[in-house]
TrEMBL record:
This is Elongation factor 4. One of its GO terms (molecular function) is ribosome binding. It comes from Roseovarius nubinhibens (strain ATCC BAA-591 / DSM 15170 / ISM). It is found in: Cell membrane. Required for accurate and efficient protein synthesis under certain stress conditions. May act as a fidelity factor of the translation reaction, by catalyzing a one-codon backward translocation of tRNAs on improperly translocated ribosomes. Back-translocation proceeds from a post-translocation (POST) complex to a pre-translocation (PRE) complex, thus giving elongation factor G a second chance to translocate the tRNAs correctly. Binds to ribosomes in a GTP-dependent manner. Residues 4-186 form the Tr-type G domain. It is an enzyme of class 3 (hydrolase).
Length: 597
């Protein structure tokens, strides 16, 4: 295909504004898929993605479109990951295309996440086509939303296309706009091969599949290729495009997007953003902007039933095959036995992996407190990266500690602004900006990542009844007064509950934690002290009194329902216990204790 007849684009949208539905419509209207094969939401292939309504893996489709000018164009849609944890992956996908459809739900308006992805698109020099979706709904207000796009994003929305991805209205206009308003890709067929590695995943039949965008040169079956960042060499076994099912082709030329198979053993051998070139006639330099992906949130995963450790290892190894950004190493904890310390790109990533282990592999897990990476500066001038609060060196040798900070952008209706400001302030946030767009405020905060990893999303959702949208980016490290707080149950330290906290907030957090644990740990036949300590100093303490022989005695005999409930509760609590010295702690205590209200 000549460059002039190719258009590459992505769709930028907030979750639920209709990205997948629109993509399906574009595919359907261009007859890319036979009607009978048309499954709802073709692009979200994994169950878990569908269930949670998020798109994790970038997917792609090639559409042939016969335009009104009588010419047939090849339209390549790259579906970008829809979550903040995958900011780097999003930025690479954006570099692989020349333009974006900016889809905004015309009954809702612009959200924080839309903004973040728009910034990625603008950074990649995209032309943006605003698309106002869901015009079939009575609440649709295109004028208001177009105005908001101009105010908040600062792009011209006068030519915005009114669309209903549901009824198909405006789809032809969208396809025409892609052809007319987005630039054709550039590239030199005769130059040495330069292809960007956009994404990769493991396919049980084909092995590792690599999604590439050809910048210069031509890639053919049988070519010897080299990854410029990792230096690895491979022979290309298969080349193809997605329609959206895989279709083998002979070659991919400049401007084209497709996949290759090349006897690559594992997904971790492929790095998003790497440059693929010919081994014999390489490009002189790689594409700019490559960044190895770095986990930012760590936590321990332990099987509830220690007999399932090998199953857990198996599950983790399999998941890691398909996810290069997920790291793990074996960990042993005095309290929890054998497990793994795992690194994730962010909280959502953590949740997805944890869910998959529990659901697909049927292993019940204990998840320890998520932790970020602290930079610990020692008095002797050396520096360590602390991934696990349990490994915190003795304070007498520590000079100072730095923690990662984020820049958070929150969009919220006016009436909830006060609650949001309070929440950010409570989490040691520093306000950077506050502006208004219509009836909504946009606040920008500098926040410590560790205050966000526990339950910030949950709290934000609950204080704003779900109306706030949130996005963040990493902002580097800063020194603060941080200490490790240990929790002792019956005088035994419980590693899995130790955490890094700000000194000024340690007492409060310690007290809250002890109170919670007091409710979460069932009573035993003896008295159990529950303490929070910094170094050797106890900063909070609760005592769980000893159990009386008859647990129902305090119910005064009368209320039978209450009695039964209490006994049932006890029985349920018994199921998932871990033994800590002489004390049994239920599994949910680990998660609940770490949530702050
Ligand atoms: P993620 O995949 O989670 O990012 O969401 P998405 O942006 O892909 O949204 P999706 O296409 O899943 O649409 C979200 C919901 O809006 C679904 O229930 C769709 O059926 C509905 N929807 C999408 N487009 C339209 C539309 O034009 N009109 C109406 N009434 N509903 C729509």
């Amino acid at each position: 295909t000549p460059l002039s007849h190719i258009r590459n684009f992505s769709i930028v949208a907030h979750i639920d504004h209709g990205k997948s539905t629109l993509a399906d419509r574009l595919i359907q209207q261009t007859n890319t898929v036979a009607e009978r094969d048309m499954k709802a939401q073709l692009l979200d292939s994994m169950d878990i993605e569908r269930e949670r309504g998020i798109t994790i893996k970038a997917n792609t489709v090639r559409i042939d479109y016969l335009a009104q000018d009588g010419e047939t164009y090849v339209l390549n849609l790259i579906d970008t990951p829809g979550h903040v944890d995958f900011a780097y992956e999003v930025s690479r996908s954006m570099r692989a295309v020349e333009g974006s459809l900016l889809v905004v739900d015309s009954t809702q308006g612009v959200e924080a996440q839309t903004l973040a992805n728009v910034y990625h698109a603008i950074e990649a020099d995209h032309d943006l086509i605003p698309v106002l979706n869901k015009i079939d709904l009575p609440a649709s207000d295109c004028d208001r939303v177009a105005e908001q796009i101009e105010d908040v994003i600062g792009i011209d929305a006068s030519g915005a296309i009114a669309v209903s991805a549901k009824t198909g209205q405006g789809i032809t206009e969208t396809l025409e706009a892609i052809v007319k308003h987005l630039p054709a890709p550039k590239g030199d067929r005769d130059a040495p091969l330069k292809a960007m590695l956009v994404d990769s995943w493991y396919d049980s039949y084909l092995g590792v599949v690599v999604l590439v965008r050809i910048m210069d040169g031509v890639l053919k079956k049988g070519d010897q290729i080299r990854m410029m960042q990792t230096g690895a060499r491979y022979g290309v076994d298969r080349i193809g495009v997605f329609r959206p099912a895989m279709q083998v082709v002979d070659e991919l030329g400049p401007g084209e997007i497709g996949f290759i198979n090349a006897s690559i053993k594992q997904v971790r051998d492929t790095k998003v953003g790497d440059t693929i070139t010919h081994d014999k006639k390489p490009a002189d330099k790689p594409l700019p902007g490559f960044k190895p992906s770095q986990p930012v949130v760590f936590c321990g995963l332990f099987p509830v039933d220690s007999a399932e450790f090998e199953d857990l290892r198996d599950a983790i190894e399999k998941l890691a095959l398909n996810d290069a950004s997920f790291s793990y190493e074996m960990e042993t904890s005095a309290a929890l036995g054998f497990g793994f310390r795992c690194g994730f790109l962010g909280l959502l990533h953590l949740e997805v992996i944890r869910d998959r282990i529990e659901r697909e592999y049927d292993i019940e897990l204990i998840t320890t407190a998520p932790s970020v990476i602290y930079h610990v500066f020692m008095k002797d001038g050396t520096q360590q990266d602390l991934h696990n609060p349990a490994d915190m060196p003795d304070l007498t040798y520590v000079d100072h500690i730095e923690e990662p900070r984020i820049k958070a952008t929150i969009l919220v209706p006016d009436e909830y602004l006060g609650d949001v400001l309070k929440l950010c302030q409570d989490r040691r946030g520093i306000q950077l900006d506050l502006t208004y767009a219509g009836a909504r405020a946009m606040v920008v905060y500098d926040l410590p990542l560790n205050e966000v990893v526990f339950d910030f999303y949950d709290r934000l959702k609950s204080v704003t009844k779900g109306y706030a949208s949130f996005d963040y980016q990493m902002e580097g490290y800063r020194q603060d007064n941080l200490v490790k707080m240990s929790i002792l149950v019956n005088d035994e330290p419980v590693d899995a509950l130790s955490m890094m906290v700000h000194r000024d907030r340690a007492e409060m957090r310690g007290r809250a934690m002890c109170e919670k644990l007091k409710d979460l740990i069932p009573r035993h036949m003896f008295k159990i002290p529950i303490q929070a300590a910094i170094g050797g100093k106890v900063i909070a303490r609760e005592t769980l009194s000893a159990l009386r022989k008859d647990v129902t005695a305090k119910c005064y005999g009368g209320d039978a329902t209450r009695k039964r409930k209490l006994l049932e509760k006890q029985k349920a609590g018994k199921k998932k216990m871990r033994q800590f010295g002489k004390v049994e702690i239920p599994q949910e205590a680990f998660i609940s204790a770490l949530k702050m209200d």
